[in-house]
Amino acid sequence: MDFGLLGGVRARRDGDDLDIGHIRQRSVLAALLLEAGHPVSVERLVDRVWGDQPPLRARETLYGYVSKLRAAGIDIQRRPGGYLLETDAVDLVEFRALAKQARNEPDQRAARLYDQALRLWRGEALDGLESEWFAQVRDALHAERATVELDRNDVAIRLGDHAALLPALRKATQANPLDERLAGQLVLALHLSGRSSEGLQHYDAVRRLLADELGTDPGKPLQDLYLRLLGHKDQASEPPEAQESGKAVPRQLPAPQRWFTGREKEIADLTEPASTVVITAIGGTGGIGKTALALHWAHQHLDDFPDGQLYVNLRGFDPAGEPVAPQTALRGFLEALGVDDPPADLDAQAALYRSLIADKRVLVVLDNARDTTQVAPLLPGGARCTVLVTSRVQLLGLLTAHGARSVALDVLDEHDAKALLTARLGVERVEAEPDVTRELLSLCGGLPLALSIIAARAVTQPDLPLSALTDELKDQRLDALDDLSADLRTVFACSLRVLTPEAKELFGLFGLTSAPDLSLRAITALTGRANTRKLLRELEAAHLVQQHQVGRYRMHDLVRLYAAEVAPAHADTNLRDFVGYFVATAHNGDRLIEPHRPPVPAPEGHAAPLEDVTAAMAWFDAEHESLLAAQRLATAHGLHDVAWHLAWALTNYHLRRGHATDIVVWRAALDAADVLDDRFKRVSAHKYLGMALTDASRYDDGDYHLRQALALVEDDYGKAGAHRAMAWALERRGDLTGALEHALAQLEVFRALGIPVRIAEALNDVGYRMARLGDYVRAEEHCVEALALNKELGHVEGEAATSDSLGYIAHHHGRDADSVEHYRHALKLYRQLDNSYEEATVLRHFGDVLAAVGRHAEAREAHQQALSLFRAQGRAEDAEEVLALLA
């Protein structure tokens, strides 16, 4: 049996094609063939076949495809790591083997091998396969083919077949006008065919196209070929302007970065027309790509400045020395403009400089400026000049006093970051490990300097898989981003030079936190300083933090790692106050959300004021990620009581929002409770961890922890709570009889304790389980009693839950009109409580009943709303069920 991927996917036995089904089934076979000899997990197959739009039952569908492929005679094996197809009889494998052999053979033999390899292509690789992953693989395979075709061209030219090759080369260059290797082959073939002038014209066309499209010159191999054809490789040719008698035209710009990528918006901002001097301050933290952007734009616009380009590196943040003095920079400019003996006085230098370029169109690039004082004397006075200034700090004086525009740089997005890496390493190497590439890009955080360092290391070690670099980055991110020519630590350290001691301390403290962003109030708790806002402005001006939302600040991951390394040695008090703020505010917020919950002792800490439930929910929404980070910080620093208390205080918020983080939160709380050896805390942690695991369909794990809670609990109130959790979990597992038994045990204990609010909840729990078992009469009796008690107590949450139960009972008892009203009331109350988790559940049931009474448009709207909430809450099974109803 043999297989084909270099065209439509096919499988053949003894030369006859096998029936391998439709496109999706062929996609499964192709995904296995592309990793022949290696197991491929079900999750990876689903992702590769369907991308981000898998069907409702993707796994079952995949199993069906595999079964049909096996029935066709293809030996697909199931291994612990996934599905495995072991075969070397694949046209892609043969193509690569032939190409590899050809590269080590004499030209005559190599030409035959290359031709044999290229004849294996039957059309577009993986023809018809539709997912994003297959599109990426297809592009990579076509790039492989193009490389082999270029290798074949080199051999043909060496063998003297240049004339016969010309038509194919012309066609290929029209399709790939920026391919320098292809352009070189056409230029050389034309030259060898006696058409050197045409070859030189093609070179000139490519040079102009590269300048227009990429802002760069041809690479050295193509330039060397051009000079060889000209016959004067060692001669230098000056621009015509420089040859004019008595005229000094400075050309001081350094070469642009060859692999510059993205920045379309910033380039557009730089190109805005202006009638006066355009002074653009390009800001951003170290390594963000300020100089690369300035030089890229400058080289793109050389024709706009025929009178020259001046450049100086002001070394405002150079670790090896002091910033360049304005007098020194001006002296260099004047000498470039033809002044042999510039004056020594700064004012006289500046006046002469402005006079010389007053009416000229000159570009001035002032790179790496320390402050406005350093820059101001270097500004020309003519209206036809343009100035680009790069700096790590916001040059506010330049913006206010000189009318400069500010173009601030952020990190590269994933698309541009990948493009930068691809430009350096090539498509084949980047696409060979797509999952690794994604992780590598994430670890570099879009910082161009970090990407460039990793790319340089990969280029110098071509046999090293990217996964090795990724593993090193995961273990030692800053150490892995340190090489002989660039060092992130040094780059970041230079930015600290402009900070006051207090701002430096805040910078280090910020690095010890791990939240995606922090509020001003939280940072104030961290510093304990009244002037925290002022210190943050200092860090903002140095581009070390960013206020991406009003009152919320974030720091790049790599900057944060460095900040943690330079944090104050004695930061324990600051961190205790920081987590104390979160746990104290969360405690108060939880009391507002669920006032009927038995109180636990209030933790130490200065809480933010929360007026009501709405304010509490809004605070939890805004600070959720910070709260999780605070718990991680508390765990790391041995603040076990705080770690447990944060989980406790988050419980009711998570119930209302349906966050899927409870497992991590309560596992940390259980570890803390074990260290504290506190029975109550251990019971709570086992109970809530068990519920979280059950909610994630990890039923056996959940059952273990719930039974641990029931075994450990000693007080009657705790036993009733443990019974309630067991009832809920057993219902989720489908054991309705067991769920009712635990619900009745819960009701019995709460009646004995005489706690009305818990009796009301227990009555509803019992009633709902009776209804699920078909005993609608007794179910309604219990729920009607619960509803009355909840209303009497003003327990809105309980009233909403019981209305939901009564809606279910009425619907299944044949009273759909009553059911609609019960669900409508439950929905109103849950929205009033801002409980989006239960709102989603009620919407699902409400939609079912509306459909049953023929109100299909309203039913569809309710199901659509439920689907949106289920997806936002990560409730995949619920979402799939509703999606099926909407199909």
| Gyration radius over CA | 35 Å
Helix content, binned percent: 55-70%
CATH topology type of the domain at 264-408: Rossmann fold
Strand order of the largest sheet: 7-8-9-6-10
Q: Going by CATH, what is the homologous superfamily of the domain at 264-408?
A: P-loop containing nucleotide triphosphate hydrolases
The stretches of 5 or more residues where confidence is low (pLDDT under 50) are 232-246
Would you tell me the overall average pLDDT?
Answer: 86
Structural class of the secondary structure composition?
alpha/beta
Assign the CATH architecture of the domain at 264-408.
Answer: 3-Layer(aba) Sandwich
- CATH class descriptor of the domain at 264-408: Alpha Beta
Strand percentage lies at: 5-15%
Tell the overall outline: globular
Per DSSP E runs of 2 or more residues, the count of β-strands stands at: 13
Total helix count? Answer: 43
How does the major sheet shape up? 5 strands, parallel
Distance between the termini: 41 Å
Structure commentary:
With 887 residues, this protein is of the alpha/beta class. Among the domains are: 264-408, P-loop containing nucleotide triphosphate hydrolases (Rossmann fold); 414-490; 499-569, Winged helix-like DNA-binding domain superfamily/Winged helix DNA-binding domain (Arc Repressor Mutant, subunit A, Orthogonal Bundle), CATH 1.10.10.10; 600-714, Serine Threonine Protein Phosphatase 5, Tetratricopeptide repeat, CATH 1.25.40.10. Helix content is 63%, strand content 6%. It contains 43 helices and 13 strands. It has a 5-stranded parallel beta sheet, sandwiched between helices. A 3-stranded antiparallel beta sheet has the order 1-2-3, with no helix packed on it. Strands 11-13-12 form a 3-stranded antiparallel beta sheet. Helix 20 (434-444) runs parallel beside helix 22 (466-475) and helix 32 (662-676) packs antiparallel against helix 33.
